[in-house]
Amino acid sequence: MNLVILDGYSVVQNDLNWQSVSRLPNVCVQVYNRTSVADVVERSREADAVLTNKVVFSREVISQLPRLRYIGVLATGYNVIDIEAAHERGIVVTNIPAYSTPSVAQLTFAHLLNVTNSVAHYAEENRKGAWTQSPDFLWMDTPLTELQGKTFVIRGLGNIGREVARIAQAFGMRVVAVSRQSQMPEGVEKMAWEDALKMADVLSLHCPLTKETQHLMNEQSLAMMKPTAILINTGRGPLVDEDAVAQALKDGRLYAYCADVLSVEPARADNPLLKAPRCYLTPHIAWASLEARQRLINIATKNFEAFIHGHPVNVV
């Protein structure tokens, strides 16, 4: 069986490898670090199976690959695949749920604490000598915010949302969730979206990107929030209208925006968030801890092995 990994470098980087897949019996593996749109069909033409992280498999691409029987998505989200076209062809599509939950939740709070405690800012100012020149035993030039007692709103209560809720509770925060789920974790309040927007001291987005959630945060929803609120997005870039968020930051209608994702990645030089005040962006790294990437590889291997044996798991 021929397996092609189309964008393997994003997962293994320089510290992991694809040996677990290569060691599967009767499997010939070809690994490409990156694959352009123009090369997808040519590189996949003889493949019985492919693994892809961000390489798109549209209906047009799938129609040109008659041998293809399996697509393993190296992520939880599978919007890079035309699922309807794959199903019509009988192609099995799998994804990798929950592998990055601890890492994404951790970065969510790294962003939040960066805003409330300005650790990076003070470390850099101290390198410039700010503390050594202080007439007092301390030196500070930013407001510092205590999380205890603040209201933390979560939109989307899947694996990551629940882990974020647990951590927020450990900080002594009031945790509110906007979710279709009827059963809430202990200590989490369910609330309607508009009510939650008005209450939020922190709003963290963990919902999937759908037609209903695209530009969930727009001019109207931002206007309902406190000007002191912090908005965090570690979900998908298009969950927010980036122009509206940038303008709200400039106008002082939103205190801070923290994001690990943008609508176009890598970031375009003209993205308004890059120059917006109190905007803190990380380059899509929430999922990319060593531990999370190793879990991803392990699960991807098990998914493919289960398909080979005729009992696919984590099927989309």
Please supply descriptive tags for the structure shown above:
316 residues; alpha/beta; 12 helices; 7-stranded parallel β-sheet; single chain; Rossmann fold; 5-stranded parallel β-sheet; 12 strands; globular
Unreliable stretches? none
What is the CATH architecture term of the largest domain? 3-Layer(aba) Sandwich
How many domains is the backbone divided into? 2
- CATH structural class of the largest domain: Alpha Beta
Which H/E pattern describes the elements? EHHEHEHEHEHHEHEEHEHEHEEH
The helix content is: 25-40%
CATH topology of the largest domain: Rossmann fold
Q: How big a fraction of the residues is strand? A: 5-15%
General form: globular
Name the CATH superfamily classification of the largest domain. NAD(P)-binding Rossmann-like Domain
What is the straight-line distance between the termini? Answer: 22 Å
Main sheet record: 7 strands, parallel
What is the alpha-carbon Rg in Å? 22 Å
Counting DSSP E segments of at least 2 residues, the number of strands comes to: 12
Count of separate DSSP helical elements:
12
Give, in spatial order, the strands making up the sheet with the most strands.
8-7-6-9-10-11-12
Output mean pLDDT: 97
Task: Give a written overview of the molecule.
With 316 residues, the protein is of the alpha/beta class. The protein folds into two domains: 2-99 and 290-308, NAD(P)-binding Rossmann-like Domain (Rossmann fold); 101-281, 3-Layer(aba) Sandwich (Rossmann fold). Helices cover 33% and strands 15% of the residues. It has twelve helices and twelve strands. It is globular. 37% of the residues are buried.
